[in-house]
Design a protein that fits this description.
Number of domains: 2
Strand order of the largest sheet: 9-10-11-12-14-13
Shape: globular
Oligomer: single chain
Order of helices and strands: EHEHHEHEHEHHHHHEHHEEHHEEEHEEEH
Structural class: alpha/beta
Length: 383
């Protein structure tokens, strides 16, 4: 097991959200070995607590003072009312894991009214992997923990996509038409790291636009995908309006993405590399509670920056290139962004081996970036 950098609060109940397969259960069992554990994926536990959430209090010994874990709590949202009562009446501490934060919110249950913090778990970061980190592996298989322990990472990812993204979505009643949803998943993979056009996706997979929008919401509900908005603060140029789309892990994206004679490695690998950078920055920002918001930047004229992080620490602009060479054309988007936001720190990440400065743009090999990602985020920069 890899040591995770996520740190739980000392004595306060908390939610731990993250997609299936990111290692939530493994982490909590190692970190809280003495906790009382309820797995809501187990049929008997699920049926008992669904029939009567009040049974939870009866299942916890009267003198219990250690942690209580409710794994996959979104399966029985009504349990949160009982958890709330037990925190107040018995001063119990709960660790509540789930693979859908919105599912709880949409169930119109309170998220414990501030009595529990909310943390997120992501695929493994480069720092957590240490010497096991490999950029080719991150691009091809992603960084779900099982891809480093299974003998055949590709087979594991195929199983993940089949049993979870398709079958379990149907079992949870999130969509009635599994065939249409399967076509949608493949079609959505072409939008990876791209400005999202929902109407075009809907046409391609032969569903109504509202159905496609609902499917994208399902992916977000299950924490399997995210849409990030365009950075438009004090905009000096006309910008695109649509958000950018990412599946949460480059390996999951690569597994969903259809491949054939007309699909070039540059096209597929380029999106996978950008995804690997995106998921690294997103995870570190959450784990170290740095407070950045994530955006991208693209003008109507086509000038673009792949990732923009904005917060009290400053503005970070990142452009990702697959090639081993950076030309003046490669830096045009960052240069335009710096014209509008001269206080930003700008990085061009590329597949070469030499770090250097091009004016006020730091050109950095991708391998160096993954070693320095936390330092890049934590560097204070006065706006």
């Amino acid at each position: 097991m890899y040591t995770r950098v996520i740190q739980p609060p000392d004595n306060k109940s908390f939610f731990l959200f993250g997609p299936r397969g990111t290692g939530k259960t493994t982490w909590l069992k190692a970190r809280f070995p003495q906790a009382l554990y309820f797995d809501l994926l187990e049929a008997e536990v699920f049926n008992d607590l669904t029939a009567s959430p009040g049974r939870l209090g009866q299942m916890i010994p009267p003198a219990w003072s250690n942690w209580v874990v409710l794994d996959e709590v979104q399966r029985v949202p009504a349990l949160l009312h009982e958890v709330h009562r037990l925190i107040e009446s018995r001063r119990l501490r709960f660790l509540l894991t789930g693979s859908s934060a919105r599912q709880l919110a949409r169930g119109k249950v309170n998220l414990l009214a501030g009595r529990a913090l909310t943390l997120f778990m992501h695929p493994l970061t480069a720092a957590e992997l240490g010497d096991d980190f490999s950029l080719p592996h991150a691009i091809k298989h992603g960084r779900l923990p099982a891809t480093f322990t299974e003998r055949d990472p590709r087979q594991y990812l195929e199983s993940y996509v089949t049993t979870y993204l398709r079958e379990e979505v149907q079992q949870e009643g999130l969509t009635r038409n599994l065939g249409a949803f399967t076509r949608f998943l493949e079609t959505a993979s072409f939008s990876q790291a791209q400005v999202l056009n929902i109407s075009a996706v809907a046409r391609e997979c032969a569903v109504h636009r509202k159905v496609a929008e609902n499917y994208f919401s399902i992916l977000e509900d299950l924490l399997l995908a995210v849409r990030i908005p365009v950075f438009a603060k004090h905009a000096a140029r006309r910008l695109v309006l649509h958000p950018k789309f990412y599946f949460f892990d480059s390996g999951v994206y690569r597994t969903l993405r259809p491949k054939g004679p007309l699909d070039t490695p540059e096209e597929i690998d380029g999106a996978a590399i950008e995804t690997a950078v995106f998921q690294e920055m997103r995870a570190l920002n959450d784990y170290y509670r740095l407070g950045y918001q994530l955006f991208f930047w693209r003008t109507i004229a086509g000038q673009e920056v792949d990732l923009v992080l904005y917060g009290e620490r400053g503005i970070i602009a990142i452009e990702v290139k697959r090639t081993a060479r950076v030309t003046a054309d490669s830096l045009k988007g960052l240069a335009a962004f710096l014209t509008d936001y001269p206080m930003a720190r700008a990085y061009c990440l590329y597949g070469g081996e030499r770090a250097r400065w091009e004016g006020n743009i730091r050109v950095l090999p991708l391998t160096d970036f993954f070693k320095q990602a936390r330092a890049i985020l934590e560097e204070a920069h006065k706006i």
